[in-house]
From TrEMBL:
GO annotations of cellular component type: endomembrane system; membrane
Function statement: Transfers mannose from GDP-mannose to dolichol monophosphate to form dolichol phosphate mannose (Dol-P-Man) which is the mannosyl donor in pathways leading to N-glycosylation, glycosyl phosphatidylinositol membrane anchoring, and O-mannosylation of proteins.
Cofactor: Ca(2+); Mn(2+); Mg(2+)
Intracellular or extracellular location(s): Endomembrane system; Membrane
Record family assignment: Belongs to the glycosyltransferase 2 family.
Organism for this UniProt entry: Nostoc piscinale CENA21
Zinc is among the record's keywords: no
Residue intervals of the GtrA/DPMS transmembrane domain: 282-404
Single GO BP term: polysaccharide biosynthetic process
Residues annotated as transmembrane: 280-301, 352-376, 382-401
Record protein name field: Dolichol-phosphate mannosyltransferase
Amino acid sequence: MRNSPSNTLLSVPSGGLQISEFPPPQLITDKTKIYFSLIIPTYKERENIVRLVKVLSELLEEVIPDDYELIVVDDDSPDRTWEVAQSMMAEYPNLRVMRRQQERGLSSAVIRGWQVARGSVLGVIDGDLQHPPEVLAQLLRSIEQGADLAVASRHIDGGGVSRWSAVRRFLSRGAQVLGLIFLPGVLGRVSDPMSGYFMVRRRCIAGVTLNPVGYKILLEVIARGNVAEIAEVGYVFCERKQGESKVTWKQYVEYLHHLLRLRLTTTQVGQKFSFPIGRFLRFGLVGLSGVFVDMAILYLLSDPSTLALPLTRSKIIAGEIAIFNNFLWNDAWTFADVAMQQQEWHHRAKRFLKFNLVCLAGLLINVLVLNLVFNFVIPNRYIANLIAIAVATIWNFWVNLKLSWRVTDVK
Ligand code: GDD
Ligand code: MN
């Protein structure tokens, strides 16, 4: 028997945003068990939905024939996306459609979809074809191989963004760095915590109340769920061909709000967080070697008995050579395991550029903390400087670990 005999719309769950351990009883009569439920949140995606449902159905029919459902959750789009989706239900029996009129928002749409889902694996994909459907097969395979959560990532091998402006890239990265500082145990676990394309085993999020603000549902799943093993699959974020993005400055504010709320309300954030102490020690030693390089070059360039160049110019050159020295050692030693996998020169150059930028920001942090501590906390410049150096070192280590060499929780 196929799933939906009629083309009635799904009723919208109300109350808390909690996902039950077992699919909702009123639906079990349909088919006792289903493997995979994929939510497609939509708002004004009339132009995309037909093609997306077609492609997804063909693909899933091949991988897990009739063992899946597609759930479109539309927020009463003015272009009547829900109606278009509904009209496809006769042709695609595994398609179900929800039209929400009381609530709005991407994350809550996804959760409402999961609440009526029957699958033991719950997924989400954008409704605008920016997430390449082929990746689904790989994500499903990762789950089969034991992952609790499989995330499509733009930031690992095979991943990328097609034509993002420098501004959007910068904002996206800035948001990630902020999260790495506030919630290291959550954002540090994956290379692309902003991904809106992933799947998770139901049992990992069953029973917990998800309470996201804004767009970033994945953060919520990692922070509140019970996720042990994570897998990542690279994908290229395609350009939108139809319709437009709903992201505005408001999503950035909501993101900050979300980070803050997760920080204040989750306790397990600290528990899962393990600091890579060995790497940190190596990083520290390399940093120390940089001090000597810096000193030696400064001497060679600026000392009256040697080249006697102006001090500032000498220091800039000495500093950059020290950074280069540190990079080489970190690449060959501290993060050798990661660097080994990406040896091409353009990968190295990219890492070096990132390392440079992070260390430059580290220098600013160093000066800032020194001033703050000296003026407001401990009026002793050497103690203040030690604290500033410690903070900057941790910054340099952590952000380079996550962005330049990208060490995540993933196998
Ligand atoms: N139901 C519902 N309600 N759907 C929404 C809403 C809403 O309020 N807002 C957006 N959507 C749907 C869109 O119709 C689209 O299918 C999907 O959510 C993503 O929205 P976009 O506006 O296209 O977002 P984006 O392309 O800028 O960003 C996406 O990709 C990022 C990178 O992977 C989102 O998936 C982000 O969450 C993701 O981080
Ligand atoms: Mn989009």
